[in-house]
Amino acid sequence: MMLATIFTVCKKELTDHLRDKRTATMIFLLSIAMGPIMLAGMSYFISSIEKKAEAREVYVQGKENAPQLANFLARQDITILEPKPDFRELIKTGKHDPALVIPKDFQEKFLTGAANVELIFDDTRQDSGNVSIGVLRRLISGFNGEVTNQRLIARGVSPLIGRPVEVRNVNMGTPSQRAAQILFMIPFITLIVCVTGCTAIAIDMTAGERERGSLEPLLMNPVSRGALTTGKWLAVGVYGVGVVALTLTGFWLTLRFMPMPKLETVMSITGMQFLGFGLTMLSFAPAMGALQMLIATYGRTFKEAQTYVSYLITAVSMIPMVTIFGQLKDATWQLFVPMLGQLMVITRILRGDPVDAMHFLVPLAINTVITAFAILLISKLLTKEKIIFGRA
Q1: Which of 318, 313, 365 is nearest to 199 (CA)?
Q2: What's the N-to-C CA distance of the chain in angstroms?
Q3: Which pLDDT tens digit goes with each residue over 313-359?
Q4: Disulfide engineering: 202 pairs with which of 127, 292, 311, 317, CB 3.0-4.6 Å?
Q5: Contact assessment for residue 277 and residue 346, using Cβ atoms and an 8 Å cutoff
Q6: Cβ(363)–Cβ(283) below 8 Å
Q7: Which is it for the CA torsion 263, 268, 271, 273, positive or negative?
């Protein structure tokens, strides 16, 4: 009987919310469009970096002052471009790539071993200009190595004397792990959608009902507070899971059908990985919905509740920053922290690292406790006159 009541409340709440077709359509469209927008942006970013690297063009001012260096660059198939007259100002505004400046006395000092050049750049700008910085530094390093070898050989000394230790790079990273490094935004965005996707319905069926004055007649029905709250939470949970499913579908459709050769070369997400993402969020979305309902219950108006809930969304969104700023490695304790645990599991799935039952069961248990606590507290709040009749 109680189960039937819960489903009836759930159906009624979902039907009521979906009547607002404009809001529902906007949420659904944004959810499914998230994948195409983000992946297309990343594909463009990677393409622009590769295009700049393949162009093999560098800006050098004063190349006539260093004929040996200019010759070295030419032998590396590098095209030397003359920077614009006001390139220093343009670099500060991000409208010019980094440039190498060779002073007029370069050749004179070069012969005595005291030459220097200036690399003009702005490292506060996170754009494709950083590629040029790396290219210029590698070229100068290569030129230094070549000149050093020539001078040592001219003096009858083996060039190996300057390299007592050779470094052989052994990269243990797999293609999947490198792809996860590039596409770290996918789990983050999907988790944010988990939190924000059901915000509207969670507030509408708590503070919204209170503001409209429809909460009193609803509570007059012969339905227990627990069944009523559980039914409302179930509606929020279904809605949240639906939004997550749409978001993941958007990512899958984009990777499956949208032509993005630059991303295809670095990653592919299998159906099992998408299933793992879905399982991770299956309990997280309803738990976040329950927390938002609890917070919104204190709001006397929709607007007031929206303000309260925004603090929760901000706090939850900041949790992943802990791993970034704290340089944290995967650890079991992270599974006990909502959002952090889900982020860890999804990242492991994306990297192709081993994932066992514990990675799903611990977050599931934590989310279940959060949900049960929130439903219990909301049920108690709905017995208080201050909550039921209090309005702004």
Answers
A1: 313
A2: 36
A3: 888 888 777 776 777 777 888 889 888 888 888 888 887 888 888 99
A4: 292
A5: yes
A6: yes
A7: negative
Query: Which three-class secondary structure state does DSSP give residue 96?
Result: coil
d(CA 24, CA 18): 6
Q: How confident is the model at residue 370 (pLDDT cuts 50, 70, 90)?
A: very high
**pLDDT confidence of residue 320:** 72
Where do the DSSP E strands lie in the chain? 57-61, 79-81, 99-101, 118-120
C-alpha span between 174 and 266 (Å, rounded) = 11
Cα 183 to Cα 356: distance, rounded to the nearest angstrom? 22
| CB-based burial, 289-306: b 16+ in 10 Å, e otherwise | bbbbbbbbbbbebbebbb
237, 277, 275, 270: which is closest to 256 by C-alpha?
A: 270
CA 13 vs. chain centroid, Å, equals 32
Structure tokens at 186: 């996918």
Helix, strand, coil share (%) of the chain residues, nearest 5: 70, 5, 25
- For 366, phi then psi, to 5°, come to -65, -45
How is residue 276 written in tokens? 């793992």
Closest alpha carbon to 33 in 193, 216, 270: 193
| Three-class SS state of 80 | strand
Q: Report the candidate in 77, 294, 325 with the shortest Cα–Cα distance to residue 205.
A: 294
Structure tokens at 52: 């700049």
Read off the pTM: 0.73
Helix (H) / strand (E) containing 36? helix 21-55
Query: Measuring CA to CA, which residue among 143, 142, 148, 144 is closest to residue 160?
Result: 148
- The distance from CA 324 to its chain's CA centroid, rounded to whole angstroms, is 11
Task: Supply the pLDDT for residue 371.
Answer: 94
Say which residues have a Cβ less than 8 Å from residue 42's Cβ, sequence separation at least 6: 182, 183, 185, 263
Which residue in this structure is represented by tokens 């007649």?
A: 217
pLDDT at residue 237, rounded to an integer:
92
Beta carbons within 10 angstroms of residue 99's beta carbon: 23
